[in-house]
C-alpha cells in the first residue's frame, strides 16, 4: 500500500494537523516508511511466542481475592478534619 499526497492531506485533516502544501510530499514519504515498517513486522513469525509483561521473565504480583466488608469507616473518619453522619464533611464550593 502506498500513500500519495492527497491521502496524506486527508489524514492530516482528520488528525487536525495543519500541513503546508509544500510539506505534503515529505509527510506522504513518512507515512510510507511507517507502513513499510508495519509490513516488516507482519512478516515475523510469532507462532508459539507467549505475550510478555516485561523484557525480563517475571510473574505479576497477585494477592488472594478475599471478600471483606471493609468495616473501617470509623477508623478512616477518625483522621478527617470534619466528619458528619459517617461521611467526610467538606466546605461548600458551589453557591
UniProtKB/TrEMBL annotation:
The keyword Ligase applies. It catalyses: L-glutamyl-tRNA(Gln) + L-glutamine + ATP + H2O = L-glutaminyl-tRNA(Gln) + L-glutamate + ADP + phosphate + H(+); L-aspartyl-tRNA(Asn) + L-glutamine + ATP + H2O = L-asparaginyl-tRNA(Asn) + L-glutamate + ADP + phosphate + 2 H(+). GO terms for biological process: glutaminyl-tRNAGln biosynthesis via transamidation; regulation of translational fidelity; translation. Keywords: ATP-binding, Ligase, Nucleotide-binding, Protein biosynthesis, Transferase. The keyword Cytoplasm does not apply. InterPro entries: Asp/Glu-ADT_sf_sub_c, GatC. GO terms for molecular function: asparaginyl-tRNA synthase (glutamine-hydrolyzing) activity; ATP binding; glutaminyl-tRNA synthase (glutamine-hydrolyzing) activity; transferase activity. Transmembrane segments: none annotated. Its EC number is 6.3.5.-. It is an enzyme of class 6 (ligase). It comes from the Bacteria. Belongs to the GatC family. HAMAP family: GatC. NCBIfam families: gatC (TIGR00135). Allows the formation of correctly charged Asn-tRNA(Asn) or Gln-tRNA(Gln) through the transamidation of misacylated Asp-tRNA(Asn) or Glu-tRNA(Gln) in organisms which lack either or both of asparaginyl-tRNA or glutaminyl-tRNA synthetases. The reaction takes place in the presence of glutamine and ATP through an activated phospho-Asp-tRNA(Asn) or phospho-Glu-tRNA(Gln). Heterotrimer of A, B and C subunits. This is Aspartyl/glutamyl-tRNA(Asn/Gln) amidotransferase subunit C. It comes from Shimia marina.
